[in-house]
Amino acid sequence: MNPLKTIFTHPICLVLFVAKPFLHWMFGLAFNITNIAYDGQLAEFSMAMFTTQIWNLCIALFIFACFFTFVALRWPRGPQPAAYGHLQTLANLVDEWSPLMWWGHKEDGIPCCHAGRVLICSQWCYFDTFTKGRAIARCRM
Description:
- Keywords: Membrane, Transmembrane, Transmembrane helix.
- The chain is built from four helices and four strands, in the order ααββααββ.
- By secondary structure, the chain is α+β, with helices and mostly antiparallel strands.
- It has two domains: about 5-75, no CATH class; about 85-140, no CATH class.
- The chain has a two-stranded antiparallel sheet. Strands 3-4 form a two-stranded antiparallel sheet.
- Residues about 115-140 have low confidence and may be disordered.
């Protein structure tokens, strides 16, 4: 699937795509910077802040923050990874903790592919017991 098509058709991505330039535009409306130069020398520099526009920006940012807080906290539908949202389960899936992390199948001579402690990996081979961190595979022929 094309990632650009996904971004431009997903409603939350479209809201973010429209909201960010809109909020930057509102921020620009809240400030006015003026400088006057005579003969190459800066003579006057002033900055004005417009209270009404700042309040409008605060309201828009509050709505933006509430919406995306709701999006971040809602539980996604459909199948999720086994360790979704649970760090201890994710830590248990790692075979060895080292500076270089290896995920996926480990070359160990067993014809089944596995990562971490997967109990069932195919219709003819399954991991029955775990002893000293190594999986004992039993395969039906």
